[in-house]
Amino acid sequence: MKRIDHKKLFNDYDLESLLKNNLNSIKSQVELINGKDFLNTPASKTVARLVGKNSIDELKLYGHFIKVHRPIKYKIDAALTTPQISEDKNHPGFIDISNIRIEIPFSGDDRLWQLRPSKFNKEGGPIFGIANGRLIKDYSQPQNVKQDLIKTEFMSDLRDIKKYLHWQNLDIQRYTNTLQETIEEVVVERIAKLHQLETLSKRPIVSMKSRKRAASFSPINARQLLGIHSPSSSAVYSDPAISNEDFIKIIRIIRHTGSSCERTPNVFKVHNDNELRDIIISTLNTQFESGTGGDLFLKEGKTTITVSEGGKSVFTGICKIWSSETRFFETVDQLLMHDAWHEGKAIIVIFNKNKKDFSEVLVPALQIVASHPNFISLDEKFGDNEWQFTMKSAFNKSDIINLRIIIFNIYVEESKPILRLTEKEMDFFRM
């Protein structure tokens, strides 16, 4: 008979924590759905899919299919109470024991066997093993005892299990009712936000003129470009803004510059944040100019790039070298605190010089932005290292920031220096 590890049921973790975490994740699940797909799918269908995805499958016992194995005979040392099998039936000091394994089939989410409901006994549930959709327990009693202790103990365990399942199901039912309401509220909220963003797209456009004889850049992993939103007399806002088409041009040039750095990392790894920012500004200013013919992209502080109109930024960029998750969160905060026009365009460019495993930068970066308090939506992914977000401005909570994040990898393995002999040492070996 295969050995099964036994442990107390309903005793390891709180069911409330699992249910609360599920509810807290609903907003991010909805926001991660592609905006176009979200609007093109009936809200009722989206709600039904998310309810199904986040529902908890209650545990159910199948009492009619309980399996009782044939008894196994043991002899146990009465003094040591250590189970031992002995062929010597007349061995002194040993008593005869009958061992019976009982299995209870079940269905449902087997994580629930370890989860403690809001109502529970302090000592925890009965002790059972869990394997292959069955609760398993080995019961023993001395053969010379006429009373059926095994049946009595099993029926007591079964009553305890059913009591715990009843308590769990009450918690799960309350969660299920709240789940439906939560998903419906979040879906309606995002539909309203997306429609608002669509309305806000009709804005006065700040003109960006390409310089004469500027080099042309081929798109690198470019997706389908957004069309130009022309100014409309019915527009609600009249704030200056860079068109989506010009924003794509800026991103395309930064992509090209960063990819050049990735192709020759040994050349660019020596640069700090400030120097990498200056390289990007120089490249942008070779392609665009202001209406007066001067430089359009200006430096601000050590790592910031701005395009200003009327005293506020219509474009903000920050260029940094990845150092830690905390510093990246601070960089996002720094950008969102910038005084920008409503629905300003922004970009964070990160260079990885220190992490050999690039995923150790990409994964936390995406998670940090998606869980940021000012996060509204993840609108599109452009490969593993580039994402488009909609964020709330920290400077003015009613303002929207269109944020692009691109991360470039210029990590290079440090090569060991080659030790060379000095002239005096070489003269020594010539002697």
Observed structural traits:
single chain; alpha+beta; 2 domains; eight-stranded antiparallel β-sheet; seven-stranded mixed β-sheet; elongated
Protein topology:
Blueprint: E1 7-8, E2 13-14, H1 15-24, H2 26-31, H3 35-40, H4 43-54, E3 60-61, E4 67-68, E5 72-77, E6 82-84, E7 94-107, E8 115-116, E9 127-131, E10 134-142, H5 149-200, E11 209-210, H6 244-263, H7 265-268, H8 273-287, E12 288-289, E13 298-300, E14 304-309, E15 312-321, H9 325-336, E16 340-352, H10 359-370, E17 375-381, E18 386-392, E19 400-409, H11 423-430
Parallel strand pairs: 2-8, 15-16, 16-19
Antiparallel strand pairs: 1-9, 3-7, 4-7, 5-6, 5-7, 7-10, 9-10, 11-12, 13-14, 14-15, 17-18, 18-19
Helix pairs in contact: 1-5, 4-5, 6-8, 9-10
Walk me through this protein's architecture:
The chain is of the alpha+beta class and 431 residues long. It folds into two domains: 186 residues, no CATH class; 201 residues, no CATH class. The protein is 36% helix and 25% strand. Strands 1, 3, 4, 5, 6, 7, 9 and 10 form an eight-stranded antiparallel beta sheet that branches. Strands 13-14-15-16-19-18-17 form a seven-stranded mixed beta sheet, sandwiched between helices. The protein has a two-stranded parallel ribbon with strand order 2-8. α6 packs across α8. It starts with 6 loop residues before the first strand and ends with a helix. About 7% of the residues have low confidence.
